[in-house]
Amino acid sequence: QVQLVESGGGLVQAGGSLRLSCAASGSIFRINVMGWYHQAPGKERELVAHITNDGSTKYEDSVKGRFTISRDNAKNTVYLQMNSLKPEDTAVYYCNAKAGVFPIDYWGQGTQVTVSS
How many other CB atoms are there within 10 angstroms of residue 43's CB atom? Predict the structure, then answer.
């Protein structure tokens, strides 16, 4: 099993920054990919960014140039640096890990990001 705990969400004004953290525990060696998804009320959960075991990254078009995903293997933690935040970024942000040979998806509890105009 993999457990994911997010932190770092909050309320910020447009143009501001936040850094989300996701700490992984359990069967960490099984993780292939980690990423961040967001979900606004009434909308589907969508990929924001992910990072693979070899360090390759992918970003949703709307966040390119503003968000950066990174990892600290020593701390078993993935980060999402969110700059130049916009009101439309407001959503619950979920940490995701894909682990094992299947693979299986694991999710954090979510952290609320609210950007005021």
Answer: 9
